[in-house]
Write a structure and sequence with these properties.
There is one protein chain. The chain is mostly beta strands and 171 residues long. The chain has a single domain, classed as Electron Transport, Fmn-binding Protein, Chain A (Pnp Oxidase, Chain A, Roll), CATH 2.30.110.10. It is built from three helices and twelve strands, in the order H-E-E-E-E-E-H-E-H-E-E-E-E-E-E. The strands form three sheets. A seven-stranded antiparallel beta sheet has the order 3-2-6-9-10-5-4. Strands 1-11-12 form a three-stranded antiparallel beta sheet, with no helix packed on it. A two-stranded antiparallel ribbon has the order 7-8. A hairpin with a 2-residue loop joins strand 11 and strand 12.
């Protein structure tokens, strides 16, 4: 089956997977229950004034319907130490997502994963249609940065970490 421009979606997905990305858990407490989307499409630096970040979510996501109604969402950039819980957070079994996962919740309901090297407290700034996804812009109200922690990376459908070592120089 080919998409609208004639490319095989499986090949497109594989090509996208060759681009390494960080992993973010976008979560909130809504109606007394935690809800989360795990996104490798999270992007920082959309804007500094106002401070905006963004991510993309499938239009068919039932979790997005809940998170989009929350006054605030927490974005936790997961560390390499979160690899063991990442697939659990992304599980189709919504009841199992937060089992044995330590979190904290802000007064406005933003939920953060404990130990995340970076977290943002956000509200939804704008949502735009983007093919079979929505492009979601988030307004950052607060953040926490732990500088000495390695982020979790997603590359070729696997979780990995940045290699510790010498930085490469660009000529």
């Amino acid at each position: 089956m080919k998409n609208a421009v004639g490319l095989d979606p499986k090949v497109v997905r594989e090509a996208f997977g060759h681009y390494p990305s960080g992993v973010a858990a976008i979560a909130a407490l809504h109606a007394g229950r935690p809800h989360v989307i795990v996104a490798s499409s999270f992007s920082v630096g959309v804007s500094l004034d106002p401070p905006l970040a963004a991510f993309f979510v499938q239009r068919t996501s039932s979790t997005w319907g809940v998170l989009s109604a929350a006054p605030r969402v927490g974005v936790s950039i997961l560390s390499a130490e979160h690899a063991s819980i990442c697939r659990q957070l992304a599980s189709h079994d919504k009841e199992a997502r937060f089992q044995n996962v330590q979190t904290e919740v802000t007064e406005d309901g933003a939920l953060h994963i404990l130990g995340a090297p970076i977290w943002f407290d956000c509200s939804i700034f704008a949502v735009h249609p983007a093919g079979d996804h929505y492009a979601v812009q988030l307004l950052i109200h607060d953040l926490h940065l732990k500088r000495d922690t390695s982020p979790l990376m997603f590359h070729r459908s696997q979780f990995t970490r940045l290699a510790n070592g010498a930085q490469l120089a660009c000529a």
